[in-house]
User: Fold these one by one.
Assistant:
Number 1:
Amino acid sequence: MTTDTHIVWREIFSTGIASVDYEHQELIKQINHVATQMSLPADPEHIIESLGDVFAQVSAHFALEESIMRRMKYEDYHDHKEDHEILLDEIRDIMDAYEAKQYDEDIGKFINMLNNWFLNHFSTKDAKLHGLLDSKDD
Amino acid sequence: MWIEGWIDHIFGQKWNPTYCLGALGYYYFWIVSISGIYVYIFFETGIPDAFMSIEYLTNEQWWLGGIMRSLHRYASDAMVAMMVLHIIREFAFDRYRGGRWFSWFTGVPMLWMVMIAGITGYWLVWDELAQYVAITTTELLDWFPIFGEPIARNFLAPSHLDSRFFTMMIFAHIFVPLFLLFIMWIHLQRVAHSTINPPRGLAIGTFLMLLVLSIIKPATSQSIADLSTIPSPVGIDWFYLWIYPLIDIVGPAWIWIGLLGGTALLLIVPWLPPAKKVPAAVVNLDNCNGCTRCVVDCPFSAITMQKRTDGMAFDQEAIVNPDICVACGICVGACPTASPFRRAGEFIPGIDLPGLSASTLRDKVERAASKLEGRPDRIMVFGCDKALRVDKFRGKGIATVSMPCAGMLPPSFIDFVLSRKLADGVVVTGCRRGECHYRLGQIWLEERLDGVRDPRLRKRVPRERVNRIWASATDGRMFARNMASFQGTLSDLKPIDHKIKKIKDGTEQ
Amino acid sequence: MKKFIQYTAQALVYAGFAWFIGYFSNIPQYTRIPEDLALVKFSFAHGAKPKGECHTLTREELLALAPNMRKPRSCPRERLPVKVELKMDGETLLKETLIPTGLHGDGPSVIYKRLVIQPGEHQFHITLNDTDREEGYDYISQKTLTIAPGQSLAIDFKGSGIEFVYE
């Protein structure tokens, strides 16, 4: 869910896995930060750097989620993993598009794209992880 | 190395025996064990029962027992050959120092075990050769004043030898290989993802070789042992009994000095100068979330996971054992935070090499790229210190950067170079498959580029701009040729498109 | 076609390695002692008499010992050396004084000597002393034997006399 250009954390987003939830919250903070920067007349260099942070953070987050899913022998692992790979390609597209100044037409649409990129996966695939800890033994 | 390249042509890289000498040694051990069990079933401990039972196998049951005996002998000879080649290779390629001392050190007792197993095996046949072995071995052991009576007295004359001696011998001949098996297990303790079995084509080929040899030239006994005669001349198995003629030439004292001194020297080889101390990898907890990719990829089991110590919400963190770490950097290549795209803060991945940090690597790449003239076919070469040195290929649109191991390269660096247009093409090079100095760097990088190992090279990176030219130090000409033809293709490729084709909007997949 | 060449080349390599194994597995022979010679192995393990006389302990000496150690007679542990000489056809092949083994010098005296000789008829003359006598010998043995080429004659000392073992 977004208010204006921001994603707001809600309790139903929690997967029950502390590390995953923590990283989700950090990612939301970081993406919101980028969205804010994009709305303001901010230094493009700073935005490029923030996007780089998002990429590194989300790469690490996906790696952690995957290792947890493998350990729990999560049945939808391969599908979820493929989604991660697609998302990483897409965030790279967003980074390159921003650096090529493709946002000139409509920064709002760009910000929307960024938010949707995150939320689509988050509210579908990651939501399914909820209860993973309860249903499997640690 | 050029020998190995030549063998590559004959066997193909996948089946090249020089890349799995240790595995072949282990494989022959299994053949020896299984054929040995069969021979053991028929062996009788006694005089002349020992000799007779083996004669029965070789003659009356030539079609199975005889072949088993021959396999037993020839596979154990082959095992010694593999062991010696393996030692020479690991020494020549400098793969025993620093954290790798453990593999070398645990291999030395295996030399003794294998030799003793072979000697006791020949002893059991109780033919003339066995008699020679028995007398010479006991005389050699008697050089030490540790026995009350010289043990060679057991073989003074026929009346001096008891049948029960063979019970003891067979016990030794089974116990020593069992103990050897235990050391074989220990030998691999710090070798992650070890290759224990040779590739199938090689396994089949080499077994057929032994089988054909066993059929054409069956193993036979020499004439029956007779302690009232001199066992001379004897046909010696030079793989195991090479030391016996030496005893007559230099005398037992020098033999013992040679054996014990040689063993001591072998044991300390990993610590002999020149000592090169490279700082071990270091984990940065601010950037480590315990994803375990470094642990999975480390070829030397130098990284483990432990419970979180900094109070962050993560369960675990990686921890490096500096005594085992060889500073290859493969863990850095595995780390998802080793992404060089510019950040707000410093570029510090979750695990890093103090000797060549990821940040320094990025600086080197950017500096090298800045020297490339404006032309449409610039190449950035990522090489490794242990294979072909890439610095000498600089110039004419070619920039090079070298790492301790090709496996240190995070695939995101390739994405970085191409998308930021630092070069028009990327070449990765390093040790050839099977020769990686750090065992797994080359194959891990291949798998990451092929998209079958994490972290994967992003699909969006145009593969026609990425080339892999694995080259050892003697492959300079091949490398230059491949570089030239790769560079030739670059000007014709369509430029990388930074426009977003389609990003999913709010609709669900 | 390439596969065929590869397999042929592999077969050649295998054949070469197989030849290497087959050859060095037992073909090059080793001759320790030339076949036209013979061998005498002179070896025994024999404890000489103790050095000194046994004596009976006096009452005072017994009382000085712990109750469980009061044996009436006390004998010295150390043994005398064994003196031995082997002559063949009048010529001395070996002459040794063998000190007893063991930390306290109470073990047997041992010898193990290999002597390469010409085959043929020989007279062997052996003398052995295991007491501290000044003159004469405790044991004398003499035997004429015909030794064939390649034969190994063992001479051991057993029980009451020097025993020749020959088959």
Number 2:
Amino acid sequence: MSIEMRYFGYHFWQTRIRLVIMSVLAILYFSQLAEIGADILSLDSMVTAGAILALYIPILEFRMFNTRRNLDTWFSLPIDRWKMALVHVLNGALHIAVVLAIGMIFEGMHVSTNAPSYNIFQLFVYYITILALTLLAYGFFCFVFTQGNSTTDGTLFIFDYLLLPGVFNGIFLNRFYDSSPRYFYGIFTTIGSVSRKFEATFWKQPYHYDSIWNLGYELGGDPYYFAVNLLLNVLICAAATVLMFRMFSCKHTEKVEDVSDSWFGYRTLIPVMAVLTISSVSSLAGYMFRLLFIYVAYVIYRKGVHLKRSDAYVIFGYAVLLLLFSCLAPGEFSLFGIY
Amino acid sequence: MIVVSNLSHSFGDKQVLDNLSLTVKDGEILGLIGVNGAGKSTFLRLISGVMTPSCGEVWYDGLPVSKGETRRNLFFLPDDPFYEVAMNCNALFELYQTFYPDIQREVFKDLITFAGLPVHKPLSSFSKGMRRQAFTAIAFAIAPKYLLLDEAFDGLDPLARERFKGMVRELANRGSTIIISSHALKELDGFCDNYLILSDKQFISPDHVAAKISMLVKYQIVFDTEPKRTMFEALKLRHYQQSGRVVTLIAEGDEQLIRRRIDALQPILVDRLEIEPGEILIDTMEELTKGGDSL
């Protein structure tokens, strides 16, 4: 047996208690949903469970690589770094597959009770589809988490990337387009749309409106934008997963526990978030609040109140951009009474 | 054979190691000496694959250390190795057994028993010395071809230290190559086959150490009455020790001139002694610590 296989076996055994706890929680969660009733059953429960796992398991799998002391041991062991990362990704993927399989069993029980005419095999197709997309999302968030040199930074990056599509659509694109199909949706909204297409087939009606995935309804309604979003998300997630293995192989051990200066982290996220939220400012108080928020973000990034000159340039640039926007934007977004 | 070629490393803008090259023969015990912060641990991390050098290469039997396969023959014991909070000696063994299938359980058990370590108690409840003994037991149970030890003697009591040295020597006799770093010179004195001093980002050349040996002489001198140190002011002393009427000194300069000056003090006995490599290292290290001329 190869060392990689042995390590997978070891790691799986070490994380068995986590799997048991997640399985028990999954049983409690899905069994409760199955009892709700036929008319409001939503397959979104699988999407929700998958999303939670895709966001949380990367932290559990990769946090051990955020301590220098640990890396002295782990990176000197006779296994290539990318293979070590692969073992952790696969172990997390297996946990997700198990939890979603529990979900599928309960959903299956529910579908067979409330829609006996339905071909249950299609539920298996649904499970495979949702699992594949959830694993892509999981791969993406593994990449995001490993961009942080500490667990806190990695977790903040996950939240940032989770919010990014919403900020992009709701605050930025919203100013230029008035129809949501032109928005770019994140992976979980896209998975929700895919789920809803299956759901519509299950229940022989277009959509279930009593759901949290409101944006996805409209996305699901336009086949072209749906396909573009799906393709974009799949490509981004797949590329991020491949890049994660590459970057993990050349991880700078000495930077662990230090400032997270990856281009996929604060360095890009803070200015991008700043620019994206530019159009939502419509008062002096809002303006000051944004500037303060960016400063605080840099303090978290630099782990200290003394910023680098380049950070000061970004904040200054943002302030100028904001002022320009205020002059050029329609009256309702204008600052200082400039119309 | 370990070959280190033009190895350099920087932490951001700060260069910590500059163009280091080194060849370590099979079966050799190499002592790596340097003051705190000299870069010993960084050097060991670079040659064990933990860190990727900014420039240069490290080869083990012709294979690059960056490949996992190469590290099958390598075991790096850092100053503060990884262990889970709840991990006990058995769990530690299981972890390493995963990566080193040929690890010998009997050797590990014997060493743990000999050291009196509780097998079922978590490592987190151990003292630093006890933990160190558990990890050295792992190292000797693996018996790798290449063993890299960072501050190997830290936390070990004198008895454990001597036993540890004996085992390292035994491993070297079986063909293993061992690199030990330490800031405690006396620990390595007379134990290693070769020594390297790491200072100011570079190794101090063995040629320079040899040249320094030729510049120093050591004498043990006996007087009929207790001498005063001021009597030796004419000599450039590097070391002076007095016990009653007996003086042991190391002086720098022309040997004949030094001897004439000692004879002028009319001692009853003068004995020329050989200088131990460790004494040269201590002298060099003292110079480095004081910021004096390096060799």
